[in-house]
Amino acid sequence: MKIIKQFFYLLLPIFLGTIIGLIINPYIDYNSFVKPFLAPPSVLFPIMWSIIYILLGTSYLLYKNNKPSFPLIDKIYYLSLIINLSWSIFFFIFKWYFFTIIVTIILLLLVIYLLYLFYKYYRPAFYLNILYGLWLIFATYLTIGIYILN
Q1: Are 136 and 23 in contact (CB under 8 A)?
Q2: Backbone phi, then psi, for 129, in 5-degree steps?
Q3: Dist. CA 54–CA 104, nearest whole Å
Q4: Exposed e or buried b for every residue in 90-100, given b needs 16+ CB within 10 A?
Q5: Tens digits of residue pLDDT in 35-84
């Protein structure tokens, strides 16, 4: 049973990210937008999110295996994962561009708080998620820029 839990912790972000990617793929219109300075090519997004989801799952697995569970970390982790995955649906399927700015900012704040909690209670998980925090800062810039320019 323990091995199943470990695979669950590790693979959940990757599995859910893949499912969301398949759902939104027909709706992705990123190349049609006027984009802000520094906007990356569309091919970079699945690569970055795959890396981030692997790091996220790995960090959570390590945390769960090496520390007593802190319910607040668990809640923030899963809440941020749900909000993260919902962003693509709101942006690409529903075209709620302004709303996704709010979602992005909420997600960024949750991940900053998660980083703080990981730093305080289990540093390896913190280090594995620095890229996530940095990418979300960049994603906030892109979301706002795309909204303003379009």
Answers
A1: no
A2: -110, 5
A3: 20
A4: bbbeeeebeeb
A5: 999 999 999 999 999 999 999 999 999 999 987 778 999 999 999 999 99
